[in-house]
Design a protein that fits this description.
312 residues, alpha/beta, TIM Barrel, 7-stranded parallel beta sheet, 11% strand
């Protein structure tokens, strides 16, 4: 199976990753036209020329409910196999990955990171408080949720995901010292577990993650997704050669800006990343109601930028 940097390098155009919004071509397949439908997700990736087929992200409350029965499942878990838990909404997630894996594009299986999952279980306010006064309890909680995330990542790989996308938005609000002390190690373990299964990992962080980019690039992950809160040029300068950056248009610009402005933004982002492994994408999920013409203006200008002549 091709590795993430190879997929990016071998593309004849700058790869794009359409994270949401309307399909470019009408979808007439079965079921509801959203990312919980494998047919629509595959159609969406094809219609936009996306480099990857994106599965839906299980809601945190569903993951938290599923994690409550983790201890009982641990002894019965088959390595890399599908999840078989009392909270069967998770089954839809693995089924979608499995269906998409039969298509023609690498499939991205999305999971929440250990810190974000732990914060959902106990509440962000309590997590912030524990970080200040009880590092031992933080490490205990993160150890438990690391095992949860590893189990979910194995299930994604077992269902056919070629890339595991680990969303860790809670990393940005905490002090970088606390992130390095408590949350970096769990990310290392998740990435190592995915690598042991010969799959790649992308870590996503929201907001101003500039101070964390170099730390994330040292986890063994092969890519990082950043939102508009992180400066793209400085992020590029903070990562080693071969590390793939995803990002980072502010998705709200697709609502507020016209096609000309969005095309200019795409060209600027592509020019910034010329010569580096890069996937152009909105930094977050595209809002409902974005006109197709605006999405197309951004994606087409980025994909066809002449400076991205596969100089990586």
């Amino acid at each position: 199976m091709p590795r993430l940097p190879d997929i990016v390098r071998s593309a004849t155009h700058l790869p794009v990753f359409a994270t949401g919004g309307p399909a470019r071509e009408p979808y007439e397949g079965p079921g509801v036209a959203d990312f919980t439908n494998a047919g629509f997700a595959a159609h969406h990736a094809r219609s936009w020329g996306s480099a990857f087929a994106l599965t839906f992200m299980p809601p945190l409350e569903v993951v938290s409910a599923w994690a409550e029965c983790q201890d009982e499942l641990a002894s019965a878990e088959s390595d890399g196999g599908p999840i078989d838990a009392p909270t069967m909404p998770m089954r839809r997630w693995t089924d979608t990955i499995q269906e998409l894996a039969e298509g023609d594009r690498p499939v991205v299986g999305q999971v929440w990171g250990p810190l974000t999952t732990a914060s959902a279980r106990i509440g962000p306010d309590r997590m912030f408080s524990l970080l200040m006064r009880d590092s031992g309890e933080v490490d205990r909680l993160l150890g438990r949720e690391t095992r949860t995330v590893q189990t979910l990542a194995r299930a994604a790989v077992g269902a056919g995901a070629s890339v595991v996308w680990v969303a860790e938005p809670m990393a940005v609000p905490i002090d970088p010292r606390h992130f390095e002390q408590h949350a970096l190690g769990p990310l290392h373990k998740v990435v190592a577990d995915v690598c042991a299964r010969r799959r790649d990992t992308v870590i996503h962080m929201s907001g101003d993650a500039e101070r964390l980019v170099s730390l994330v690039s040292a986890t063994g992950a092969l890519g990082m997704s950043i939102t508009a809160g992180t400066d793209l040029a400085r992020a590029r300068d903070s990562v080693p050669p071969g590390f793939v950056l995803f990002g980072n248009l502010d998705a709200e610009e697709l609502v507020r800006r016209d096609e000309t402005t969005l095309g200019e933004r795409a060209r600027g982002m592509a020019a910034t990343m010329t010569g580096a492994p890069y996937v152009a994408t909105p930094g977050s999920h595209v809002p409902d109601g974005v006109p197709i013409e605006r999405m197309a203006a951004f994606i087409d200008e980025a994909r066809d930028h002449p400076g991205l002549a596969r100089a990586v």
